[in-house]
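Quick entry between incubations.
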Amino acid sequence: MNKNAKEAIVKAAISLFNSNGYSGTSIRDIASLANVNPAAIAYHFKNKTGLLEYCFMHFFEQYISKIEDAYAFIDRGAKECLKRIAADLLFYQSEHIQLTSFVYREMSIESQVVREIMSTYSLKEKYYFQKIFERGFEWNEFRPHSIPYLIIQLKGLLMMPFMNTRYMREVLYVFPNEPFFQQKYLKEIHLWIDKTLCSDVPIKKGAVIK
Amino acid sequence: MNKNAKEAIVKAAISLFNSNGYSGTSIRDIASLANVNPAAIAYHFKNKTGLLEYCFMHFFEQYISKIEDAYAFIDRGAKECLKRIAADLLFYQSEHIQLTSFVYREMSIESQVVREIMSTYSLKEKYYFQKIFERGFEWNEFRPHSIPYLIIQLKGLLMMPFMNTRYMREVLYVFPNEPFFQQKYLKEIHLWIDKTLCSDVPIKKGAVIK
Amino acid sequence: MNKNAKEAIVKAAISLFNSNGYSGTSIRDIASLANVNPAAIAYHFKNKTGLLEYCFMHFFEQYISKIEDAYAFIDRGAKECLKRIAADLLFYQSEHIQLTSFVYREMSIESQVVREIMSTYSLKEKYYFQKIFERGFEWNEFRPHSIPYLIIQLKGLLMMPFMNTRYMREVLYVFPNEPFFQQKYLKEIHLWIDKTLCSDVPIKKGAVIK
Amino acid sequence: MNKNAKEAIVKAAISLFNSNGYSGTSIRDIASLANVNPAAIAYHFKNKTGLLEYCFMHFFEQYISKIEDAYAFIDRGAKECLKRIAADLLFYQSEHIQLTSFVYREMSIESQVVREIMSTYSLKEKYYFQKIFERGFEWNEFRPHSIPYLIIQLKGLLMMPFMNTRYMREVLYVFPNEPFFQQKYLKEIHLWIDKTLCSDVPIKKGAVIK
DNA sequence: GATGAATGAGGGTTCATTCAT
DNA sequence: TATGAATGAACCCTCATTCAT
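Done. Structure below.
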């Protein structure tokens, strides 16, 4: 029952954190949804903070590993590699849509714990994206460009569908957790990579936009 | 001191909501930052919810009016119109970076009030985007495409810099509130419009991506 | 507007004090029901306490004056006098049913103000009842009896219909504010006076129950 | 300390509710009088309302059971039965004088909770009184009479000594919690039953006062 | 390992009241 | 005279957490 309890707690926490936000969710709510005694949460995670930490670690470890795994194939080309990352992240996020949504939201809140966790993973992520883009520039796969601005755009495209799933469903009638969406949206990102990132439009020579 | 108090409360609220989230911010925190009595908040806004409502309305009324104003020039071309909207929204968001950041985050939390406010503005926004895209398709300015997926991408590009400003500053060394950024990033969006949205690459005939 | 405002406040106060109790009623509630600014109550009555005081004084001055007026006719007989008091009080209470109900309830709450007001009127009331009963004993109109216990019974009979008017209406289907009730119930009290108070059953001689 | 805490809270609550009224008593007051943490009240009773509910239930369950127990002996005669009820209720009320006093006062305040509780018990009580009176009429023990008006009188006599104990003590020098009072006052009620209720005075034939 | 009792801090809100206008 | 703004205290309640069992 031990393992089950812990899993049930995490599952309940993710669901409630996603709906009501971290601060808006009480330990009691989580415990009652998980059919667990409130003290059990303290036992397994020490803290409410500990539970948050666990969720973040859980998310970002897998998140980064997707990037790392794909980066192993960088020699097949930066473009190919980037497309694979897009596919893998899209798939991963779709599979853990509540966790993704909640992590992306809570990420922007001032918090000792979050800041510490993020500092590691953000840098790792940036490192890989940077490598890939640089490789793409070198081999003339990508149009020369400011890397930070590329990262913003890429992450914007990748995160957007999961930032507000209610909006997606109720306003745009798009369902980010369905395979259909994943395939469809992946093509959009490919299009961005092909058209905007790799665009062969002649740029003034040497003009690497900083 | 009347007007000042209300303004001071709103200013403090936006700052704290942005840093700590709505649920993570107490009325007492706001009051003490605004140098105001906690009861004054209840007096001016009735509720903590009322304060949130005020912030949302304040944001979205201006947000929508930017779109509406730009839409008036639709006859000069959908592309031109869209670029103007991008510029205006980017500028508006940069000018109210904390409010923007906090609204975009809190938007995704389950809440009666937020849901009600959003339902109005989301539909308005969608309406205008839809009109513009349709016009663009008609006049062959834009490559035929699924509108919802275009909206996702456009909004992703527009919102991303303001979703996590700490990440922007500390990881990417990008400062979304500076005029330099606005100009720079606007060009990126123009690029997306020119390359991805208007791309003249021959599409398989009649292939309107659903 | 001055006089009207004061009257409106009192009227609203009596209604709300009756429904929700003194402590359960806020000055704002009263003000809004009376269509008056909350500060106006402070102006007219200085305090919430002052308003309570006013209600009590208002009630008991008339209450005692009814007794005093009837007592003037003590020479026509104690029984006659008592019946007149019963009739007058019953009528007065029926006419001011909300005020009566609320005063009788609030009377039993520990409060400096109430205690002070009551100490005067309770003693006055007791004085008259005592005089009447003693006169009744002297002239052999009433069966000798302990005066305090008579007062309890008499007051019990007089107050009961107004102590919980909802119970009267909804459970017993009796409506203490209607003339029909007054006449009917007055006969009951007369019966008590005639049968229980004046009962000629031979009592052991000299046995004045203490 | 479990059971003790709950009991201590109830005891303190009854005392304070009696002195200051329900609305006039704060949870902190109760907690500090009971030497308990304020949150413990919420733990044991969920609400301040829950505490009130508990007091009411506690009172009326015993109250009704006294009536029910006595009603079991209805076959010994309605008069006998009524006298027994009077005795038992008087004794019960004397023993729980503060609770009785406070319940009788708060009963008349507009409140969802009180209304719901009362609706049950009032009807039960009425049912038994009605049965007894009807039986008394049938067997010619009681003079025919309107039942609601009899209930008013009986309840008035039974409740009066506990409606305002300060008045009893300080004005009438009567102490409703002392055995002496119980015996004395019980005789008064017997007198009412014998003289007013059972009065053999010839009534106009068939005249059942409605 | 798991739980019910208890705690102190702090949550949002309402209160009666005051004061400048 | 009458009122809108503002205040500080107190309201009830919920919080995350601890601890003995």
